[in-house]
Specification:
By secondary structure, this protein is of the alpha+beta class. It has 5 helices and 7 strands, in the order ααββββαββααβ. The protein has helices at 3-7, 12-21, 59-66, 110-124, 135-139; strands at 25-30, 36-41, 43-46, 49-54, 69-81, 92-107, 142-156. A hairpin with a 2-residue loop joins β3 and β4.
């Protein structure tokens, strides 16, 4: 375990709260050549899983089809900490972050896709919550579900 993780762990509740309020996550997949491929995404934490949405084609989906193991990260930079700093190298950063490993699958069930998309709408555009999503939008949107295997959160302040 990293040294800072021993003393700066977020609690499960703090992890949950960060997953609810964070607006952008990063999903890491692996190319067939073994290179990491990281994509920033909108996401929602729902039913104890992570869900992202996007176009139904692309490298991220190709890589998930070949290898379902993914990494997930969210963070928030709260600000710089200048107290006691005499040089730039002494300035620290106040932050919270969550890193998770999991398995990703593409959801194909239209009813569940609609449910997840409604959660995404509620998070990002709450003024549209409760409106019926057009069938063609549901069908033509890829939903990636990440089942979390390991999850840690850390902070510094």
């Amino acid at each position: 375990m990293q040294n800072r993780m021993k003393t700066h762990l977020l609690t499960e509740e703090q992890i949950y709260e960060l997953l609810l309020r964070a607006k952008v996550c990063r999903i890491a997949t692996q190319s067939p050549e073994g290179y990491p491929y990281v994509v920033p995404m909108h996401f929602v934490y729902f039913n104890e899983k992570i869900y992202t949405h996007g176009l139904p084609k692309g490298l991220k989906l190709e890589y998930i089809a070949q290898n379902s193991k993914v990494g997930f990260e969210v963070d928030e930079m709260i600000g710089f900490m200048y107290e006691g700093a005499d040089v730039a190298c002494d300035v620290n950063t106040e932050y919270n972050s969550v890193i998770a490993l999991g398995n990703a699958v593409v959801i194909t069930d239209p009813k569940y896709k609609r449910e997840v998309l409604n959660e995404i709408v509620h998070k990002y555009t709450p003024s549209f919550s409760g409106q019926e999503l057009p069938d063609n939008m549901v069908v033509n949107t890829a939903i990636v579900e990440i089942s979390i295997l390991e999850c840690t959160g850390k902070y510094y302040k």
